[in-house]
Amino acid sequence: MRGDSGPTAQRSMRSETRVLVVPAGCNGGYPSGAWKYWTEKGLVSGGLYDSHVGCRPYSIPPCEHHTNGSRPPCTGEGGETPDCVKRCEDGYSPSYKDDKHMGLTSYGVPRSEKEIMAEIYKNGPVEGAFTVYSDFLMYKSGVYQHVSGEEVGGHAIRILGWGVDKGTPYWLVANSWNTDWGENGFFRILRGEDHCGIESEVVAGIPN
To answer: CA–CA separation, 188 vs 63, rounded Å?
Structure first.
């Protein structure tokens, strides 16, 4: 089930995912910092890499995460964060300043299955973070439940909705590892048991 929310809120939530690279990235960054940036500085529009859509399309070329596909393999955490260029692509209108979308407020959602479901239903997708284990990297389909493997690190994702598969409750989650991974870029994870911490660090916000 997907939350019933307006298109403006949905766009703002999606825009937020483009600035998840706060200091330290997957090595200790805080997703709430990206939401704070949205409320204090604002975000411009954008699109996929090389799409020339929006003010600032994504600037990092796509690569393959933990799967064999049509793109080159990702090189890990060693890459440099691109400079923040405060101007729109040539030929785009309005200006960078006028294209800004501001957040009214951002907040943490209580560590509660029902609270998270209510937030999604009312305002649309939320951001979460969870502990990644090596068996998650090999995920293909179904409802993920950690079984074995070492801890790899933390990972921020977007929780879109929820459902039940053969009696197993799950969260429907959008990953950032391109469409060759998982269920066309998405995955499902056990819901209601704070599995791998998926319900512990949920953040959301309201657009201005």
So the answer is: 22
